Amino acid sequence: MESQDIKPKLPQDEHIVENKELNIWEALIPVIALVGMLAFNVYVYGDDALSGSNQFILLMGGAVAAIVGAFNKVSFQQMLEEVAENIQSTTGALLILLMVGALAGTWLISGIIPSMIYYGLQILNPTIFLAASVVICAIISIATGSSWTTSATVGIALIGIGEALGVSLGMTAGAILSGAYFGDKMSPLSDTTNLAPAMAGSELFAHIKYMAKTTIPTITITLIVFIILGFTQDTSGAADTSVLLNDLKTTFNINPWIFLVPAVVIVLIIKKTPPLVALLIGTLLGAIFAVIFQPHIVAQIAGVESLSFKSAYRGVMDAITVKTSIATDNETLKGLFSASGKGMSGMLGTIWLIICAMVFGGIMDAIGALSKISQSLLSLAKTTFGLFASTVASCLALNVTASDQYLAIVVPGKMFKKAYEDKNLAPENLSRTLEDSGTVTSVLVPWNTCGAYQSGVLGVSVADYFFFAIFNWLSPIMTLVFAGFSIKIKQLISK
After folding, report:
1. Across residues 45-64, what is the average pLDDT?
2. Which spans in 322-448 are helix H?
3. Contact, 324 vs 23, CB < 8 A?
4. pLDDT value of position 5
5. DSSP 51
6. Maximum average pLDDT range among 84-98, 259-273, 428-442
7. What are phi and psi of 274, to 5 degrees?
8. 92-96, 138-142, 298-302 — which is least confidently predicted?
9. Rounded to whole angstroms, how far apart are CA atoms 319 and 110?
10. Burial category of 295 from C-beta neighbours within 10 Å (exposed 0-12, middle 13-18, buried 19 and up)
11. Cβ–Cβ contacts within 10 Å for residue 268, how many?
12. Are 394 and 430 within 8 A, CB to CB?
């Protein structure tokens, strides 16, 4: 194979497989089977379903799709090729997950996460914590263009602060994700913010400006709800703050100089450094700062009393690669340290889930089911509202069936583009709807790459944060409200 043939595949280059042999009912068989099997599996296993059984259920769903494909003249080789393509497209995400695990490990033993919690406990209280989390994550995500980076850095620290304050983990995760996806959606640095207008045929900044019409009301409502929730919180956790602060300071060398590491990572991301590179640098800097500021912690992890080059290497490598524990008598801190110190091995369950989801999505694409479902939804779009509703439904369906955020933007974007033109609707209507329903809802599906990633990084199941990820599920509702009442619906301008 010649070198020019080896090129990275961009999301917008994704082809859509069509199969005239397949009808809509056959296309829906694997979806119905998957949802049924997952529902029963969660009923049996509860919160432990993501430990492995859900992954196998996704493979079983893929098997059902393969049987449907075989009856509709799709070869097994075609299915395997599409699965391979799907898994290849997630390579970057899988590597990022491993690096996030490594970064969290070194940021724990270096005292970065404990210092964030230490200072955060003094600044934040249960009343303003949730609303402040939304704002903080929104700012970081707009600056970096990445919800993933936001949750992997400040998100992990906020989870720790929330737990120390006695705030529900589901509420904290919902606030983090609401802010992170607001920033991801509105930042010109975000890949999805660039992908949506590319699919719809609109211009980037016109897309962002038009998107603000639905996004600003949505984030405003989200903040109001979190402010109200803050006033209803039991503030008993604040009474334990002094004990936690003292135990944190006893266990770690709390030092503001430690914040140089996260500052460097955020600057690198803003400068458009590839996330993998930024996370690797953050991991290595965290390891160096651990040896400098927390030698006693590194020695403890290595199982020695005095630190040498060999034991320092072992302590740091263990923090990067495997689950580590830091001795403390404080039960709350044990939980916080355990959640952060999982290393790369702590991300393997999430990686396993993503790979299995890509198998299901790949086979669904190969047999033409994704195309058939989108086309059927498009055929229902008789009115302007029907067109918007069909687009939203298609994005949601793709997030569930293809298990990938990008496909939930690319497939409906390609399918619905001409329909919007035919109804004399400006392309910004389509690009905004793709973001309002494709980008932000991906995190609400446990087996979607985004849902798997965020629940893995934050240590909170999708079921626990689903209701509190207010911005994420309210966004598609808001876009339908605007369409239903013909609010700010831009028409094509005749040239």
Report:
1. 80
2. 331-340, 348-366, 369-379, 384-401, 405-422, 427-434
3. no
4. 35
5. G
6. 428-442
7. -50, 135
8. 92-96
9. 10
10. middle
11. 19
12. no
Give the number of domains in the chain: 1
- The pLDDT of residue 12 is 56
Whether residue 85 is predicted with pLDDT greater than 90 in this model: the reply is no
Q: Six-digit token pair at 477?
A: 């509702």
Which tokens is 345 given? 């091995």
| Burial class of residue 474 (count of CB atoms within 10 Å of its CB; 0-12, 13-18, 19+) | buried
pLDDT of residue 17: 66
Residue at 231 is within a domain: yes
The boundaries of the domain holding residue 284 are 92-347
pLDDT at 135: 92
Q: Nearest CA to 99 among 149, 140, 146, 150?
A: 149
Q: With beta carbons less than 8 A apart as the criterion, state whether 373 and 415 touch.
A: no
CB contact at 8 A, 109 and 341: yes
Pick from 63, 56, 14, 12: which is nearest to 38 by CA?
56
Q: Between the CA of residue 189 and those of 38, 77, 353, 408, 481, what are the distances in Å? A: 36, 38, 28, 19, 28
| Chain mean pLDDT for the chain | 84
Query: How much is the average pLDDT of 276-299?
Result: 92
Q: How far is CA 438 from CA 151, 189, 392, 431, in A?
A: 19, 18, 8, 10
- Tell me the backbone φ, ψ of residue 491, rounded to 5 degrees: -95, 155
Q: Does residue 367 fall inside a structural domain?
A: no
Q: Where are the beta strands (DSSP E) in 61-103?
A: none
Q: List phi, psi (to 5°) of 145.
A: 75, 15
Residues in the chain: 495
Structural domain includes residue 398: no
pLDDT band at 60 (very low <50, low <70, confident <90, very high): very high
pLDDT of residue 450 exceeding 60: yes
